[in-house]
């Protein structure tokens, strides 16, 4: 499965989707991981880092 997750006819990929949602890519990855446990089959192209919430901006 490819990494198009929002609107396949428009073609947003994982990173563009995070930008459109104005969120960190790691938060989107966590949400997609939860969706995968609920039966979806979404590609998550990010390696999880346990400290992403604590990093300074």
Give the gist of this structure.
This protein is mainly α and 57 residues long. The protein has helices at residues 14-20, 25-37.
* Mean of pLDDT: 77
- Helix-strand topology string: HH
In angstroms, what separates the terminal alpha carbons?
A: 33 Å
Share of helix, binned:
25-40%
The general outline is globular
State which percent range the strand residues make up: under 5%
Quick one: how many beta strands? 0
Q: Major sheet, described briefly?
A: none
Radius of gyration computed on alpha carbons? 12 Å
Q: What is the total number of structural domains? A: 1
Structural class: mainly alpha
Low-confidence segments, ≥5 residues, pLDDT <50? none
- Counting DSSP H or I runs of 4 or more residues, the number of helices is 2
Question: Which terms would index this structure?
Answer:
2 helices, globular, 57 residues, single chain
Could you describe the 3D structure shown?
By secondary structure, the chain is mainly α. It has one domain (1-45). The protein has helices at residues 14-20, 25-37. The chain is globular. The termini are far apart.
Element layout with pairings:
Elements (H helix, E strand, L loop, with lengths): L13 H7 L4 H13 L20
């Amino acid at each position: 499965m490819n990494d198009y997750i929002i609107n396949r006819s428009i073609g947003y990929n994982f990173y563009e989707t995070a930008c459109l949602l104005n969120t960190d890519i790691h938060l989107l990855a966590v949400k997609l991981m939860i969706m995968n446990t609920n039966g979806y089959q979404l590609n998550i192209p990010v390696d999880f880092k346990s400290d992403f919430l604590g990093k300074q901006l």
